[in-house]
Amino acid sequence: MSTHSLVDSETAIILGPQFKQFRLERGLSLEELQAEIHIGKRTLKRIENGKCLPFIYLRTLCRFYGVKLNITLE
C-alpha cells in the first residue's frame, strides 16, 4: 500500500474530529500544529473536517498525539 493512499472516508470522518479535539485540548492553533508536524494548514483543516486522511499523515498525527491506532488494512 502506498503511503499516499487515503484512509477510507468513514474512518476519516470519525478520526478527523478526534484529531481536532486533541489539538484543541492541547491549546494549539492550526498554525502551531503545522509548525510542529510540517503538514500544511489547508491539509490539516481537511483532515480535521473528515474530508481526507492520507495514511502518511495518519501516522504522523498518531505519533504526535501519542495515540495508538489499530487499523485492519484490506
Q: Rg from C-alpha positions?
A: 11 Å
Give the tally of structural domains: 1
How far apart the termini lie comes to 10 Å
Shape: globular
Structural class: mainly alpha
CATH architecture: Orthogonal Bundle
CATH topology: 434 Repressor (Amino-terminal Domain)
Stretches where pLDDT is under 50 for at least 5 consecutive residues are none
Provide the succession of SSEs: HHHH
Total number of strands: 0
What is the gist of this entry?
With 74 residues, the protein is mainly alpha-helical. The protein has helices spanning 9-25, 30-37, 41-48, 55-65. It has one domain (9-65): Orthogonal Bundle (434 Repressor (Amino-terminal Domain)), CATH 1.10.260.40.
Write up what this structure looks like:
- The chain is mostly helical.
- It has one domain (9-65): 434 Repressor (Amino-terminal Domain) (Orthogonal Bundle), CATH 1.10.260.40.
- It has helices spanning 9-25, 30-37, 41-48, 55-65.
- It is globular.
- The N and C termini lie close together (10 Å).
Key descriptive features of the protein:
434 Repressor (Amino-terminal Domain), globular, mainly alpha, 74 residues, single chain, 4 helices
What layout of secondary structure does this protein have?
Blueprint: H1 9-25, H2 30-37, H3 41-48, H4 55-65
